[in-house]
Amino acid sequence: MRALAILLLTAMPLQADEVWVTNEKDDTVSVIDIETLEVTRTLEVGQRPRGITFSKDYSRLYICASDSDAVQVMDPITGKILHELPSGEDPEQFVLHPDDTHLYIANEDDAITTVVDTKTRRVIAQIDVGIEPEGMAVSPDGKIAITTSETTNMAHWINTETQEIYANTLVDQRPRHAEFAKNGTELWVSAEIGGTISIFDVASQAETAKINFAIKGVHQDRIQPVGFRLNADNTRAFVALGPSNHIAVVDAQTYEVLEYILVGRRVWHMAFNADETKLFTTNGISGDVTVIDTTTLKALKSIKVGRYPWGAAFRPTTQ
Amino acid sequence: MNAALIAMLAIIRREMLRFVGQRSRFLAALVRPLVWLVVFAAGFRAALGLSIMPPYQTYITYEVYIIPGLCGMIQLFNGMQSSLSLVYDQEMGSMRLLLTSPLPRWWLLFSKLVAGVCVSLLQVYAFLIIAALFGITFPVFGYFLILPFLILSGLMLGALGMLLSSTIKQLENFAGVMNFVIFPMFFMSTALYPLWKMAESSQILSTICAWNPFSHAVELIRFALYGQVNMIALSVVVATFVVFMWASVIGYDPARGMMRKKAR
């Protein structure tokens, strides 16, 4: 009996972890096997999919289908859309609260941040923010949510208990992405046109540092920071520099840029694998995902996906 | 030891001594590709554009792209220089001494080629080390794997030089070889631009590049640097080496070849 069980187990195909990528122009999601570094599935989703994230247990995938004006919920195993969540108009980016229930969604066209309960599927709050909200972040303790507005050039600090803005801070031009760092004591905000990342002290909302970028042979106007990720121990940050086609590697302690890595054209967002040894960047114009070895800081391979890949999310298959 | 081998080793030793004695030649052999790498590659970095093509798995900078081409350039110049020194040997009389040996002529000529390749290997590896100091590196196994292919491409380019040297009367004609052989071969190849880039500006140029044996030597080195063998390039390099070698053996045959014409 035991031998049979072992035989059955070994006969089963080994499933590797995956990276899921939204293709903005194809209305699809590409699934990349991170062992073979190949696309294994391409799934149809709503119109203009952009933001993408998994529930805590990875049993649900949330997709911002911007032109369908909905957040779609997918079963990642079957690839079927289970239902849609009311999201307000033109949802672009979102972030899942640590409670695994509340989604904070930036509605780009309406200058609103919508808070949706994923269990009851109801909108529980709509918060007026600046024009063209995009970047979304929630502090690790879940007490603060951040929305950045691209045209107002502000980071809006939202108290998640009252669902009200309690502070606004000016950032450089066209803020696109926000992330909390160092156990929620720091907030990082990227500015696409400003070409910088500003770092704020969360307690005082005061700016404490600013990171600038310069790549040899690339015009400064093309260096446009958008998405970025910090590794788990917060020693390094990887910053997508848009049409400069490079990822910057930043020392998250000294805020110095350590390296620039050449990737595909117009890089915007990224996802790590489980042990953060690999980073997958979405390159919109070249329609591919570049895989970076985060130890050697070298690009390993670029994988063709759909047209205009936008967001990326990691999904472990062995938990 | 076999007499043939002793002769080959003697010829290699002579070539090495000559190379070591000419320190400026070594310096020139290194400076030439380095100027291309530092000045030319920096200027054209943005102009190349981006595209993934085998053997590359992802996007690369122009500096990375032209390294195999510059290795090829070192071998091209060295092959020509080493074989053209045969013209000097002819003028000085040491060639006559060599050819009076009882060993077959083709062996002597082949030994001369091997000697030239040994010199070019030193130059290529020295260049790769300097490139690595500039931060342009390749997979470690690539540095080892290119060795047999560098030998092959070196032999092919040396054989071409030897064929040309059999038709040249005086050393002064080297300038003609520069203008009509080395430069066209180098510029109309995949050393500086990939074929797709050439095709964008001219289809004829792209076709010439695709047929140029030097392109195949460069591609052979390029693929080997990433642990791959480009079979088409390998076949072309081997075939052209055989043809050039055969033609130069005939060229150096006093009874049939160009030597007789030259003597007139």
Give structural notes.
The complex is a heterodimer of chains A (319) and B (264). Chain A is mostly beta strands. Chain A has two domains: 46-212, YVTN repeat-like/Quinoprotein amine dehydrogenase (Methylamine Dehydrogenase, Chain H); 215-319, TolB, C-terminal domain (Neuraminidase). Helix content of chain A is 3%, strand content 54%. In chain A, the strands form seven sheets. In chain A, strands 3-2-1-28 form a four-stranded antiparallel β-sheet, with no helix packed on it. Chain A has a four-stranded antiparallel β-sheet with strand order 4-5-6-7, with no helix packed on it. Chain A has a four-stranded antiparallel β-sheet with strand order 8-9-10-11, with no helix packed on it. In chain A, a hairpin with a 5-residue loop joins strand 24 (267-272) and strand 25 (278-283). Chain A is globular and about 45 Å long. Chain B is mostly helical and 264 residues long. Chain B has one domain (3-263). Helices cover 77% and strands 0% of the residues of chain B. Chain B has twelve helices and no strands. The chains are: A mainly beta (319), B mainly alpha (264).
Short overview:
The complex is a heterodimer of chains A (319) and B (264). Chain A is built from 1 helix and 28 strands. Chain A is mainly beta and 319 residues long.
H/E series of chain B: HHHHHHHHHHHH
The DSSP helix count of chain A reads 1
Report the C-alpha radius of gyration of chain B, rounded.
19 Å
At CATH level 3, the topology of the largest domain in chain A is: Methylamine Dehydrogenase, Chain H
Indicate the low-confidence ranges of chain B by residue numbers.
none
Biggest pleated sheet of chain B: none
| Arithmetic mean of pLDDT of chain A | 92
Distance between the termini of chain B: 40 Å
**Strand proportion of chain B:** under 5%
N- to C-terminal distance of chain A: 25 Å
Number of strands of chain B: 0
Number of helices of chain B: 12
| Percent in strands of chain A | over 45%
When the domains of chain A are counted, the total is 2
Query: Which class do the helix and strand fractions of chain B yield?
Result: mainly alpha
Helix coverage percent of chain B? over 70%
Largest interface: A-B, 15 and 10 residues
Report the mean per-residue pLDDT of chain B as an integer: 84
